[in-house]
Each structure stands twice: as structure tokens, then as C-alpha cells.
């Protein structure tokens, strides 16, 4: 029977799941994903987490608890550096220790330290070491790593084509399945798959009746977890807004905006948010900015104010900050979204 690797559907899942899944499946393991966030998962997370944690960390604990009896190992990486400029917040750095100390009765953790600042080959070494814990040899591990990187790149391309993560992931599955088959079929299938992804992106994000274009910014695990954000993306679509998010900007375009930052922030995801917003301003892409911030998030205390000031500086672009935690109610969010979009429609001289 294949080894079962449990992956919590939270935090960096939204950035890296296709890559991680490909890696473990190439090693012959079965990947078990926790269900979408729900009330039970949130309650389990609140029970297990230290009290001053932010909602994404509480939710992560709940997802871990939901996998306790369903996997042989849990994949809880220590993601410490994703580029040369920054690290991640302390909760990401201490995630394996937090989980071991707080959630009882869970299987052993696989917790490679992933930090590109440790050297060019550090990530690949960390992945090969992880593979060796599962009994894989060097060649198999290296091959799995290379395929996983390609899957990750393909996924990023889909997100940049304005596909939302949960819609993009099955497309990556399809693509990796095609990679496993014969070479000729692989090439044509990848082309078809990309083309259909682009077509579907047009459907997903074309402006609706209001003509309003909104940037929804924040950490991917806030933007794409429908339970945490009370279904915000769908609510905005129902209100007729076209939406862009940081992941819909190709990584190289975001990186090109780094020079506009007076000072780099310490945190990777925070830099991505700032750079995406600079890109939206540069391309005149949005009528307003909505920032999803987590109550008790240290980095966001700074990012939220910087975004507000930047919106003011760039032509007083309307800015709405929504601070979320486990007590956030759907009605309160919808009311504020309605007020914000109504104000934008009037600003454009239109009527609801
Ligand atoms: S960056 Fe903020 S929201 Fe994200 S895990 Fe750290 S404290 Fe929580």
C-alpha cells in the first residue's frame, strides 16, 4: 500500500500544492488533502492553537487535526525563504514546532527547511532528504523534484492567466497526467490545456454589469479560503465587479515593481502584495483596492497602513481594509462590500 502524505489545505497550500502533490506522487505516495475549511475545522483549530495566533494559523491547526487519522505522515514544511529579499513571518518559521506542541495524536511530520537563501542547491537538497525519509533513492528523488518544479511553474502560469487556485489545480493534475504519458501526447495536451485555461480565465474575470475593477490583495490563504473571507470573491462577482489578485500578475512583473518600494519589507508575502498593487497602479487596472488582513497579524499592521498611504498617493484610489478573524460575520462583510462598490459606481457616474 502506498504511503499516505497528508497536506493541510491552508497557508502555503494555495501557492504550492500542485508542486508538492507532484513531488510526492512521483515518489509513489498517495496525497491526502484536508477538506475545504468549515466550521468544525475552525473550532478544532481554535481549540488547539495558542490564543494570540492569527486566523490562518488557527485554521491550519484545524486542518492538521482533520488529517490526524488519515495519513502516515503530515507535510508541514518550514518555509523560511522564497526569494533572496525576505523571509516569512515567525509563525511560518516555527510552524512544525507549533504543530508538534499543540495538536495531539498526529502522525510524524515531514518538515524540510525550504530557504533559497541557504544556497542555490539548498531547496533541492531539502527535497531529496525528504524523499530519502520515504525510502526513495537519489535519482528518483531528483526526477520527482524536477517534475514538481515544472508543475509549479505551470500552476503559476495558470494563476497569471487569471484562473483561481481551486480551478487551476485540476488543470495541473490533467497536465501532469499527460506528462506521464507518451511524449507526443504530452506536448499537444499541454497546448490544449493552456488554451482552455486561457478561455476559462476570460469567463472567470471579465467585468460584469457594474464595470468596476477591483484589486483584492492580501495573503493567498486569506483571498482564496472562502470560509475565512466569508465568500468574498463570489460576493464581489455577484455585485458585478471584475477582480484581480496578486497571483494574477506574473512573478517577473511583480519583481519588476520591487524598485518602487522605498524599502523592502522583511516578509515575502507582504512584498508580493505591495508589488502587485504598484503594478495595478502602473497599468491603471483598478478602480479600488480591498485589502484582506488578519486580526493579530504583525506584518499586516505595517502593510495595511502602507497600502492606504500608497492608494492615497496614487490618485486617491478608494481603499477598503477588511480585518478578518473567526468572529467575522458574512452579513457585515457583504454590507461593507455593497457600500464600497456602490460608492465606486457613483464615483464613475453610474447607477446601481
Ligand atoms: S503573515 Fe500574518 S496572517 Fe500570515 S501567518 Fe503570519 S501573522 Fe498570520
How many structural domains are formed by the residues? 3
Radius of gyration: 20 Å
Distance between the termini: 58 Å
Percentage of residues in helical conformation: 40-55%
The spatial strand order of the largest sheet comes to 2-1-3-5
CATH class of the largest domain: Alpha Beta
Multimeric organization: single chain
Give unreliable regions as ranges: 198-208
Count, helices: 15
| N to C succession of SSEs | EHEHHEEHHEEHHHHEHHEHHEHEH
CATH third-tier fold name of the largest domain: Rossmann fold
**What is the second-level CATH architecture of the largest domain?**
3-Layer(aba) Sandwich
Tell me the total number of β-strands: 10
Mean pLDDT: 91
**Bound chemical compounds:** iron/sulfur cluster
Morphology call: globular
Largest sheet: 4 strands, parallel
Write up this protein.
With 352 residues, this protein is of the alpha/beta class. It folds into 3 domains: 4-159, Rossmann fold (3-Layer(aba) Sandwich); 161-204; 206-347, Rossmann fold (3-Layer(aba) Sandwich), CATH 3.40.50.11900. 53% of the residues lie in helices and 12% in strands. The chain contains 15 helices and 10 strands. The strands form 3 sheets. It has a 4-stranded parallel sheet, covered by helices on one side. A 4-stranded parallel sheet has the order 8-7-9-10, sandwiched between helices. A two-stranded parallel ribbon has the order 4-6. Helix 1 links the parallel strand 1 (4-7) and strand 2. Helix 1 runs antiparallel to helix 7 and helix 2 packs across helix 3 (55-66). It is globular and about 65 Å long. The structure holds iron/sulfur cluster. Iron/sulfur cluster binds at residues 54, 56-57, 89, 91, 219, 294, 297-300.
